[in-house]
Amino acid sequence: MKTINVELGDRSYPIYIGQKLLSDKSIIKKHVTSKQVLIITNEVIAPYYLDLLLSNLSDKQVETLILPDGEKTKSLEHLNIIISRLLKNKFSRTCTLIALGGGVVGDLTGFAAACYQRGVKFIQVPTTLLAQVDSSVGGKTAVNHPLGKNMIGAFYQPISVIADTSVISTLPGRELSAGLAEVIKYGLIRDKKFFEWLQKNISKLINRDEAALAYAIERSCINKAEVVAEDETESGVRAILNLGHTFGHAIETALEYKEWLHGEAIGCGLLMAADLSYRLGYLNEATVATIESILMEAGLPVKNHPRVTMQKMLENMKVDKKAKDGVLYFILLESIGKAVITADIKTEMLEETINKYLSRG
Amino acid sequence: MKTINVELGDRSYPIYIGQKLLSDKSIIKKHVTSKQVLIITNEVIAPYYLDLLLSNLSDKQVETLILPDGEKTKSLEHLNIIISRLLKNKFSRTCTLIALGGGVVGDLTGFAAACYQRGVKFIQVPTTLLAQVDSSVGGKTAVNHPLGKNMIGAFYQPISVIADTSVISTLPGRELSAGLAEVIKYGLIRDKKFFEWLQKNISKLINRDEAALAYAIERSCINKAEVVAEDETESGVRAILNLGHTFGHAIETALEYKEWLHGEAIGCGLLMAADLSYRLGYLNEATVATIESILMEAGLPVKNHPRVTMQKMLENMKVDKKAKDGVLYFILLESIGKAVITADIKTEMLEETINKYLSRG
Asked: Do A92 and B153 touch (CB under 8 A)?
C-alpha cells in the first residue's frame, strides 16, 4: 500500500492506494471516529462492494443510501434526499459520510458533507479509475444545474481517500477509458516523463495490468496532490487541472449529461485543447497527432458527439467557471508536460477548432 | 462612522456602522470591484432602499432579485432561483452578490455566494437590527429544511458589512424587539457592563434613540467579532452565541417558521435557558426575574407560543446542530456575563423548564 499526503495544513489528509484495501478493516476504522455513519452509493456499485464496507463498520450506527447511477444524480434534488435522510435519522454534526462510488457519488456526497449543518466529515472510497485519479482528490465538490455543470458546490476536503485498485477489475471498459483521459491529462500538463511512460504502457493499462494501474494511479494522485497543495481554491495554478475541461463541460452540457461519460467528453476536450494550442503556435502538428494517437489507444473519442452543434458549444462555454467578467480563459499546452493559462482567444480560432472536430461527426 | 474589523486572517473584513451609510457611494464602491453584481433583496425592503443602492452602482452590470418576505424564502428552492438568475446572465466567478435585507436575505445570499461556482464575493447590507447585530456578522450562512432550521449551509465570510443605523427608523416595532433579543444575549453571555447599560437604556432603544442604537449595535458587533475571531467554525467557544437558540429553534420549527420572528423565539429561548440555568443551581431566582424583566421591556415574549407542545419541543431539539452523537448540549448561564456549555441535562429538568413556559400559553 502507498500513502500520499495532500498537504493542506489542518485540512491535510492521506490517500491510500493499493490492492484489496476495502477488505482491510483497520484503514476505515482509523478514520471513522463517530458513531453515526451514512454510506452513499449507487445501484451499480452497491451489489459489488456495499456489504464488504458494511462488514467493516458493524459496531457503528450505519445508514445506507443507494442512489440511481449517472450524472443526473448530481442535483440539488438528490442533495435534498441526503439531507432528509440525515435529519430523519437525527444525525448530528459529528457524523461521518462515506462516498462509495465514482465521481458522481463522490461530488454529491462531498457537497452534502460540506453543507449538512455547515460541514461534517466525509471519506472518499472511489470505485472508478476516474474518481481514484481525479475527482476524489482535492476537495472539489458540487452538483449540476440544468444550465451548467458543477455550478453549485464547495471546496471541501475529505478526511481520507481509500483507492482500492482491485475494484478496477469490475469496471466496464468505457469507464476505464474515461479514467485514462484524466491520467493522460496529468502527463500533458506537468509530467512529461509520465506521459512518455504512458505512451509505452497504454495497452497494459487497457488490459488492466494491476502493477501498471497502481503506478498510473499513484503518479496521477501525486501530481494532483502537489497542484492542490499549491492552490486549494483555484485562484491560480490549479486551473491547469482543467485542461480540456472547458470543451469537455460544453459537450456534456450540450448532451444534457447523457450519452457520454465525463472522461469521454474530457478525452475529446484534451484533443481540442491541443488543436487550439497548435493554432496559437504553441504545439506543432506532430505533437497534436501524438496526443490524438494516445487518446485513440486509450479508447477515447477523438471527434465530437454528432448531436453537438457549434452554437451549443459556444453558448455553453460562456458560463464556464474559468470565465472572469465575461472573458473566457483557456488552459492550453506550450509543450507536452507544460500547461499555460491564456485569455482573449479569438472567436474565429476557437470556431476553427470546434469545427474541425464537429465536421467528423 | 465606526469600523470594526473581524479578524480572520485572509478572510478578515470590516463592519461599518453609522448613519446614512447607504447614501455614501464611496463605501460600496470600495468593495465592489467586479463588473457583474447581483443585488438580492425582498419585496418589503426594495421600495425603501433598492433605488438608493442602485444609484451607487450605476457603472456596473447590476441584476436585482426581489424575493418574498419571510423565513420560507430561506429554502433550497430559492437558492436554485438565485443560481438560475446568475447562470442565465452568465455571471462568472468574479461577480459580487449583495444582500440587502434582514437575516433571511443575508443567510440565503451568503449561502448562494458560498455555493455559486464554489464561492464568489458577497457584501452584507443588513436592514434589520437583528441582522446588523447578529446574522450579517460571522459568516454563518444557510437555508432551512422542513425538518430543521439552518440545516443546509456553510461558514462563508462576506467581504464587508455595511450597517446603516438610519434604516432602523423604518423598522416595524416587532422587528426592533426581535433584534433586541440578540443584543441582550451579548450582555448575558460575555459583557456584564453592557447588560447593565441595557437595563438603564432599554426604553431609549425601544424609542429608537439613534445614539443609543448606534452604541448597542457597536457593542454587539464587537462582542460577536471577538468570539468569531476566536472560533470561526464553532468548534468551541463560538457555541455560546447560541444561548437560547436550542429552545428558540425548536419553537420556530414547531411553528413552521411562521407566527413568530426569529428574534421573538430567541427572546423566549433566552428566558428558558435562564430558567434551566436556575434549575441546575447556576442562577438564583432573582436573576431569572431580572432577565425576564428586561425581555418584557424589550417587547419580547416571555411564554411559549400557544401552538407549541412539549412533544414538539423535545422532538425538535434532538436534531439541534449542537448535538454530538445523540447527546444534547446546552448553552447556559453561570451568571450574567458568563455563559457555560453543558451536556447531559436530565430530561426531567428540561421538561420542567419547557413546561413552565408552556403552561402560561
From this structure: no
pLDDT in tens, A26-35: 999 999 999 9
- Residue A334, SS3 per DSSP: strand
User: What are B142-160's pLDDT values in tens digits?
Assistant: 999 988 889 999 999 999 9
C-alpha B160 chain-centroid distance: 16
What is the value of ipTM here, to two decimals? 0.89
In the block, cell 468548534 appears at: B235
Reading the block at residue A191, the C-alpha cell is 509530467
β-pair partners for A116 = B152
The answer to whether B90 touches B140, Cβ cutoff 8 Å, is: no
pLDDT value for A361: 45
Q: Can you name the CATH fold of B173-358?
A: Dehydroquinate synthase-like, alpha domain (1.20.1090)
- Rounded CA-CA distance B301/B260 in Å is 10
A70-123 pLDDT tens trace: 889 999 999 999 999 999 999 999 999 999 999 999 999 999 999 999 999 999
A258: confidence class by pLDDT, cuts 50, 70, 90: confident
Identify from A325, A327, A329 which residue to disrupt to test chain B contact, counting B C-beta atoms within 10 A and taking the largest count. Answer: A325
Q: Between the CA of residue A331 and those of A46, A123, A345, B360, what are the distances in Å?
A: 37, 30, 11, 67
Q: Is the domain covering A2-170 a CATH 3.40.50.1370 domain? A: no
At B361 the pLDDT is 45
Contact criterion met (CB below 8 Å) for A339 and A331? yes
How long is chain A?
Answer: 361
d(CA A26, CA A137): 21
Give dist(CA B246, CA B254) in Å, integer. 12
Query: What are the residue boundaries of the structural domains of chain A, listed by start?
Result: 2-170, 173-358
Q: B-chain residues within 8 Å CB-CB of A95?
A: 325
A32 in reach of chain B (CB within 8 A): no
Give the pLDDT band (50/70/90) at residue B71. confident
Name the DSSP class of A158: -
How far apart are alpha carbons B161 and B163 in whole angstroms? 6
Q: Which of A145, A230, A141, A128 is nearest to A182 (CA)?
A: A128
Q: Hey, what amino acid is at A142?
A: A
